[in-house]
Amino acid sequence: MQDVNPADSDDVLGEVARSNSADVDQAVTAAKAAYAEWAATPMPARGDVIRRVGGLLEREKDSLSQLMTREMGKTLKEARGDVQEGIDFAYFMAGQSRAPVGDTIPSELPRKFSLTMRHPIGIVGLITPWNFPIAIPTWKMWPALLAGNCVVLKAAEDTPLCAQRLVELVSEAGLPAGVVNLVQGTGEEAGAALVAHPDVRAISFTGSLETGKLIAAECGRQMKRYSMELGSKNVTIVMPDADLDLAVEGIAWGAFATSGQRCTATSRVVSLHPEFADALVAKAESYKVGPGSDETVDLAPLINRTQRDRVLEYIRVGKHDDGATLLTGGQVLDEGVLSKGNYIAPTVFTDATPAMRIAQEEIFGPVTTVLPVPDLDAAIAAANSTQYGLSASIYTNDMTAAMRAVTELEFGIVYVNAPTIGAEVQMPFGGMKSTGNGFREAGPHAMDEFSEWKAVSIDFSSRLQKAQFQPGE
Ligand code: NAD
What we know:
Layout: E1 2-5, E2 8-15, H1 21-40, H2 43-59, H3 61-72, H4 76-96, E3 104-105, E4 112-120, E5 123-127, H5 135-146, E6 150-154, H6 160-172, E7 180-183, H7 187-196, E8 202-206, H8 209-221, E9 225-229, E10 235-238, H9 244-256, E11 268-271, H10 276-285, H11 305-322, E12 325-328, E13 347-350, E14 367-372, H12 376-383, E15 391-395, H13 399-408, E16 413-416, H14 446-449, E17 451-459
Parallel strand pairs: 5-6, 5-8, 6-7, 8-9, 10-11, 10-15, 11-14, 13-14, 15-16
Antiparallel strand pairs: 1-2, 3-4, 4-17, 12-13
Helix pairs in contact: 1-7, 2-4, 2-6, 3-4, 4-5, 9-10
Nicotinamide-adenine-dinucleotide binds next to helix 7 and helix 8.
C-alpha cells in the first residue's frame, strides 16, 4: 500500500505491507506465546517498561512529529501535541502501576476475607484511526499492557509508519517479544481478520460508527468484549452574555484544528449571540491555509482525496438539500503550493435547524454550522438532538446557564468557557449514546476496558460457612 503525504501527492513516504489473515494469525500466535510470562510479571515491572517507552517518545518527539506531519498532514504544533499525549499517558499509567488496585470488602461471615483484583483479558486487538496516529494507539496500548494483556495493533491505512515507529520504540524499551504485535493493511482484510480471530478475546476500536457497528456485531456473535470510541457531532452553546472574543477564538480552534478531523471537533454552534456568526466568519477568513510543515500555517490539508470529496459533498448538501446559508468557505483551495494537497477553506454555515443533515451527520472536515436559537431551553434541546454524545461546551458567565449545561447536556465530556477539543490524559474520555458503548479511555478508568474484575474470598475458619444462612441452618 502506498503511503502518501496529504500536502504533496508527489511525496510518497513508502510502500507498506498489506497484512492478510495469515499475518494476523501469526501475530496472534506470537501474542499467545508471550502471554503467560507477561501476565505473571508484577504490575510495577510492567509499569517500568511503559515509563521507559515514555522516555523514548520524549527523545524522539521531534522526529516523530515531523513524520506525523508528513504522513498525516496535521500542523507540526499539533503533531507535537499528539506525541506529547502519548508521553503524558505513559507516565500516568506507569504511576498507576504502583497505585492500589481493587478493594477489601467486609464479609458477613467470621474468618473470611474478601477482596477484588483485576485479571487480564488475554489477547486484545487494537484497531485505530489515522487522526491521532500516536496518541490513540498509546491510549489503548498502555492500559492494555499494564493490565497484563498481549496486544495486536491494526494501524490505520493512512498512518502506517507512525505506528511502526511507535512499536519499534516499545521494543527498544525492553518489552518481551510477542507482547506487542503490529499488523498493517486494510480494515476489511487485516482488521476484520483480527476481529474474527477466535483467540482474540477483546477488541478496542476507535473509528467511525459504521465500522463500529460491524465490529460490534461480530464480537457479539463470538461473545467477545468490545469497546467503541466512535464518531460525534459535538456542539458549543454561545450565550448572549458570553465573552465574544474568547468564544470566537475557542470555537474556531475547536472547529478548524486538525482541519476538523477530530472526533471532538466543534461541528455545531448553537448561538444566542447576535454578533457571533459574523465574528466567526472574520476569524475563519484570517486563517492561513497550507502544509502542516510550515510553522505559520493555521489550517493544514485533509487526510486524502476521498475525505476531501466527502467534505465537499456535505458542503453541497448544506447549500442545496438542507438550504442553510453558507457564510464563508465551501471551496477547494488549490493555488500554488496548495495544488498538490487536499485543502478546503474554513467553512461556516448559518440559519441551520437541528434536523438538517449538516447538523446531524459527522462531516470530519473544516466545516461548522451555526444554529440560531431563542433561549437556553431551545439551546440544550438542539445540542442534545443528535444520536452522538462525545463533547460539548458552553460560553457564558451566567452560573445558572453553565450549571444547566453541565447537568443537562447528554455528552461524555463537557467544558465551560473552553472549546470542545483539548482532552487531558488524566480525565476519562468517551461519549454517550451512539458515540460509544460505555467504556472510557484515558484516566484511571482506562483499565476497565482491558481487565476483568475478580472477586476473591479467603475462608480461614476451617469449617463450611454458608452466606445468607442463619447460624446452625
Ligand atoms: P474507520 O472506521 O474508517 O477506520 C478506523 C479503523 O478501522 C482503521 O484502522 C480501519 O482500517 C479499520 N476498519 C475499517 N473497516 C473495518 C472492518 N470491517 N473490520 C475491522 N476494522 C476495520 O474510521 P477513520 O476514517 O479511520 O476515522 C475517523 C472516524 O474515527 C471518525 O468517525 C471519528 O469521529 C472517529 N474517531 C473517534 C474517536 C473517539 O474517541 N470517539 C477518536 C478519533 C476518531
